[in-house]
Task: structure prediction
Amino acid sequence: MPFAPYRIMWMFAMFDLPVDSKEHRKQYAQFRSALLKLGFTMLQFSVYAKHLPSEDAALHLSHVLSLAVPPKGQVRLLTVTDRQFGKMAVFYGKKREAAESPPEQIGLF
Result:
């Protein structure tokens, strides 16, 4: 069972980047663009997530992202299993909503 819920991972990228100058805003845009090109989806402002087939893929992606962090930026990466992600509670106002579903197909590199 290669794609068991304990093997499939979700990676969260949470970041604070300065935007107080033109150069900082440019670096912010470049980092956000890098996240999107790598297949991340925005969950909230400055919180992005990506579905991954394994922990090895998460480790590789972590290294790739570390190279894209702007000099004055702070980025935190958190990896959880698909099963843990599925237990997430999502609230919109007072109403509880289901968490995002994993993609229909996992991209293989």
Remarks:
- The mean pLDDT is 89.
- The radius of gyration is 15 Å.
- The first strand starts at residue 9 and ends at 16.
- DSSP finds three helices and six strands in the chain.
